[in-house]
Amino acid sequence: MLGYYEIKTNPSNSSSIWKIITAVGITVAGALCFLIPKVGWIIGGTIVGAGITGLMAAAKNSNITWGDFAKEVGIGAAIGAATGGIMKGGTAVFGKVLLDSVAGVIVRGAIEGATTGAAAELIRLGLDPNHHNFDPYAVLTGASLGILMRFVQFKL
User: Fold this and answer.
1) Cα(104)–Cα(133) distance, rounded to whole angstroms?
2) For residue range 118-151, what is the model confidence (pLDDT) as tens digits?
3) Rounded to whole angstroms, how far apart are CA atoms 33 and 27?
4) How far apart are CA 147 and CA 145, in angstroms?
5) Mind giving me the DSSP string for the chain?
6) What are the structural domain ranges in the chain?
7) For 11-25, how does the pLDDT look when each residue is reduced to its tens digit (9 = 90+)?
8) Are 112 and 87 within 8 A, CB to CB?
9) Which of 35, 67, 120, 122 has its CA 20 to 30 A from that of 133?
10) Are 50 and 80 in contact (CB under 8 A)?
11) Residue 148: exposed, middle, or buried by beta-carbon count in 10 A (0-12, 13-18, 19+)?
12) pTM here?
């Protein structure tokens, strides 16, 4: 006799899935903004930072409220604006190597994503009394997502 599995839906888990989908959409929109001439770096950096930080928060905490999710997105946006500006300056220094090569895309994405993840984690440590330990996975996740988004942009 074959058994069956009962799938129970938990409203907070479905809400978490919607937060993850929202964060991925934000991140993809930010990657597309990098195509805007002159200001795309800062606009794209802001939006990608928001998406990456929101995605990390939603993936780590399935019970995160929409309000807390919005705070995480805001923190990521502020950090993303700064890292977008930093990477624009880095491109001015390193020139086309960072723009036209796969290695440049990987380096740029890793730096931007890791910086966003680390900075968000440090801000979270300062703002959230329940958050006591620095999570190195925030840096790794940020770097991975940064590389992915920059690669998507590179291929467009």
Assistant:
1) 32
2) 887 787 777 777 767 877 877 887 788 778 777 7
3) 10
4) 5
5) -----PPPP-HHHHHHHHHHHHHHHHHHHHHHHTTSTTTHHHHHHHHHHHHHHHHHHHHH-TT--HHHHHHHHHHHHHHHHHHHHHHHHHHHHHTTHHHHSHHHHHHHHHHHHHHHHHHHHHHHHHH-TT--S--HHHHHHHHHHHHHHHHHHHH-
6) 13-155
7) 545 677 889 899 889
8) yes
9) 67
10) yes
11) middle
12) 0.66
| Token duo for residue 120 | 């968000």
Pair of tokens at residue 8: 């129970």
| Confidence at 86, pLDDT banded by 50, 70, 90 | low
124 token code pair: 């979270």
Neighbour tally for 107: CB within 10 Å: 18
What pLDDT was estimated at residue 41? 76
Amino acid, res. 107: V
In single-letter form, the type of residue at position 102 comes to: V
**Cα–Cα dist 64/130, whole Å:** 13
